[in-house]
């Protein structure tokens, strides 16, 4: 069975492990380059991207992970995980870095303090019916997408909240907290395809 890692430096690691337990894969927590080398795909959880950034550099996994993503490792990031995958970041803390992987610009904490957190349904044509029940928690927005990026989901006003770029999927919201398994399913499909 393929082995899927969840980057376990900070954030909602447990929720992603639970979501992944519904699939025919082994699940492992990943904190080091050594552990990264043994997985066929990686989930980047929600949490606090500035902390994940700092810890990933401290643990020496930031650079090998960027390289692995560039080499085609399937990766799925939610919320802070999406931020970590953006090639360009606005409203990060001073010196904040990302792994890259998605040719997009992401604005951190894009919804401000008035609408810190909210839930709404998002139509994702790729996933069909029903719409995705999306939970946003101090969520980022995708404010610009490169030509090869596939937009998977938008808010009612057109703002982009889910994208796919080759081997990388990112969502502004948290499918792992609302029992939404279809993004994980697509990611797992990618992992199976690459491992085959
Ligand atoms: N605001 C957080 C950040 O900057 C993301 C929030 C989340 O993952 N729910 O990383």
Automatic annotation (TrEMBL):
* Assembly mode: In the presence of PdxS, forms a dodecamer of heterodimers. Only shows activity in the heterodimer.
User: For L-glutamine, which residues are the binding ones?
Assistant: 47-49, 108, 137-138
Catalysed reaction, written as an equation: aldehydo-D-ribose 5-phosphate + D-glyceraldehyde 3-phosphate + L-glutamine = pyridoxal 5'-phosphate + L-glutamate + phosphate + 3 H2O + H(+); L-glutamine + H2O = L-glutamate + NH4(+)
What's this chain's function? Catalyzes the hydrolysis of glutamine to glutamate and ammonia as part of the biosynthesis of pyridoxal 5'-phosphate. The resulting ammonia molecule is channeled to the active site of PdxS.
GO terms for CC?
cytosol; glutaminase complex
GO biological process entries: L-glutamine catabolic process; pyridoxal phosphate biosynthetic process; pyridoxine metabolic process
Q: Which Pfam families match?
A: SNO (PF01174)
Q: State which pathway it belongs to.
A: Cofactor biosynthesis; pyridoxal 5'-phosphate biosynthesis
Active site (UniProt):
79, 174, 176
The text of the family note is: Belongs to the glutaminase PdxT/SNO family.
Q: What is its EC number?
A: 4.3.3.6, 3.5.1.2
Entry's transmembrane regions: none
Q: Does the keyword Cell cycle apply?
A: no
Q: Which UniProt keywords apply?
A: Glutamine amidotransferase, Hydrolase, Lyase, Pyridoxal phosphate
Origin: domain of life: Bacteria
Q: Which GO terms describe its molecular function?
A: glutaminase activity; pyridoxal 5'-phosphate synthase (glutamine hydrolysing) activity
Q: What protein does this entry describe?
A: Pyridoxal 5'-phosphate synthase subunit PdxT
Cited PROSITE patterns: GATASE_TYPE_1, PDXT_SNO_1, PDXT_SNO_2
């Amino acid at each position: 069975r393929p082995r899927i890692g969840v980057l376990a430096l900070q954030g909602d690691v447990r929720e992603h492990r639970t979501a992944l337990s519904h699939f025919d894969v082994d699940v492992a927590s990943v904190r080091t380059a050594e552990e990264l080398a043994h997985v066929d795909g990686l989930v980047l959880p929600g949490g606090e991207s500035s902390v994940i950034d700092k810890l990933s550099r401290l643990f020496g996994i930031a650079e090998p992970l960027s390289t692995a993503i560039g080499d085609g490792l399937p990766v799925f990031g939610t919320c802070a995980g999406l931020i970590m995958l953006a090639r360009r970041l606005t409203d990060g803390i001073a010196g904040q870095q990302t792994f890259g992987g998605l040719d997009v610009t992401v604005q951190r904490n894009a919804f401000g303090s008035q609408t810190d957190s909210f839930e709404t349904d998002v139509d994702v044509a790729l996933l069909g019916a029903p719409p995705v029940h999306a939970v946003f928690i101090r969520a980022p927005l995708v404010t610009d997408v490169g030509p090869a990026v596939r937009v998977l989901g938008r808010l009612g006003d057109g703002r982009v909240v889910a994208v796919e770029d080759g081997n990388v999927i990112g969502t502004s919201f948290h499918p792992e907290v609302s029992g939404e398994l279809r993004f994980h399913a697509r990611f797992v499909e990618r992992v199976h395809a690459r491992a085959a």
